[in-house]
Request: fold
Amino acid sequence: NYVDQEIDDETNFFYQKKRRPSIWGDRHFAERAFAKASSWDQEVTNKGVVEVISMQDIVSRVAQFFGCSEQSIYQARRGRGSQNIPRWIAMKLCQDYSGQTLEGIGGLFGVGNYCTVSQTIARLKRLVKEDKCVKDKIYTISTDLTP
Reply:
């Protein structure tokens, strides 16, 4: 019976909002909640509220950890089978801690399409399943980044 009921106009409008935080409630409540949320310099993830970390700080920390230049992280390596693990890790940590979209991350790393960022992070996840050392490195850098 529930599934057969039609969605009312207010509910339908709520779920059609694009690129805006959806806050359910009357106008006064929504304005207060949005104002409060907009003033936070924090990101809410599945880990709870975390401080937003700039992507440049993340890249700097990854470069420091791996003993490489930041420029080498910003530049993609070309060729079948080439790996730039510091770059991959930096992209993943930017996704986790910067509060940026994949498109924003792609802009910093000089990739033309956000799908490239998504594919790179997926490649890293596959590598983590094969190589526990990579997982440990991500954990160590993440721990250093977050309080």
Summary: Helices lie at 9-16, 27-38, 55-66, 70-74, 85-97, 102-109, 114-130, 132-145. The longest helix spans residues 114-130. The radius of gyration is 19 Å. The CA atoms of residues 89 and 138 lie 7 Å apart.
